[in-house]
Amino acid sequence: MEQNQLEQLKAVKEEMTRFMLTYKFGMDEMNTKLNILKEEFQHIHEYNPIEHIKSRIKSPESILKKVHRKNLEISLDSIRKNIHDIVGIRIVCSFISDIYRVSKMIQNQKDIKLIECKDYIKNPKPNGYKSLHLILSIPVFMSDREEEVFVEIQIRTVAMDFWASLEHKIYYKYNKSIPENLTKELTDAAMVANELDDRMEQLNREMNYIKEQNDTDLDSLKINNKNFHMPIKLLESLKRKN
């Protein structure tokens, strides 16, 4: 291979590395924000609305396949503009109300822009799929530039996530052509999962009511698994100022 071709390949590789790193940094920044929200909520409300978080970056091969499927120009600028799920983050919550609470907390971040929202909870897909999908834009500060990175976030309950995982496995096991009887079973299972979510939501409301009635522990503060005594005079003083 000629030296000129080698230099060109090196330049392309460097550009592609920078491109993928930008998305990696965007994912890291988004995960940091989510972890801060989790910890803040845990300390302030003694409750964590997020069960777990899973994140991934599409491989260059997967990106190229999607570019071909969408019949897009093969260029990094075209990919940046048109492929919005290179970074994917799935947030699993305990209750349906937590989904919208987490979504609101994310969107309230000043440096995050909401690009698109698809609510498959209020408007489920025909097969029973439920989830809240957000396409967000987040700034990533490199050494010599600022890049806007698209991030797709899916927020769902444990029941929704279990159903979606099962549907995904069956979908690919039957090569994307699910037998009619299994399709009906999956739809029925989605209804059962929805009923479970509704019952758990009712239990959550009842538990919150009981907690509010019995929440009298005002003289201690727990931070980083350590208990700190809260002087009543300080609390009273702060209360007067508020």
Measured as a percent range, the helix fraction is 40-55%
Question: Which strands sit side by side, in order, in the main sheet?
Answer: 1-2-5-4-3
- Report mean pLDDT, rounded to a whole number: 86
* SSE topology string: HEHHEHEEEHHEEH
Strand residue percentage = 15-25%
Tell me the Rg in angstroms: 23 Å
Shape: flat
Number of strands: 7
Q: Note the quaternary state here.
A: single chain
Helix-strand category: alpha+beta
Main sheet, how many strands, which sense, barrel? 5 strands, mixed
Show unreliable segments. none
Report the end-to-end length measured between terminal Cα atoms: 73 Å
Helical region count? 7
Tell me what you see in this structure:
- With 242 residues, this protein is an alpha+beta fold.
- Helix content is 55%, strand content 21%.
- It contains seven helices and seven strands.
- The protein has helices at 3-45, 60-69, 76-82, 96-107, 158-173, 180-214, 232-241, and strands spanning 50-57, 87-93, 113-119, 132-141, 146-157, 220-223, 226-229.
- The strands form two sheets. It has a five-stranded mixed sheet with strand order 1-2-5-4-3.
- A hairpin with a 4-residue loop joins strand 4 and strand 5 (146-157).
- It is flat and about 75 Å long.
- The model has no long low-confidence stretch (mean pLDDT 86).
State the main characteristics.
242 residues; single chain; 7 helices; 21% strand; alpha+beta
Q: How is this structure best summarized?
A:
The chain is α+β, with helices and mostly antiparallel strands. It has seven helices and seven strands; from the N terminus they run H-E-H-H-E-H-E-E-E-H-H-E-E-H.
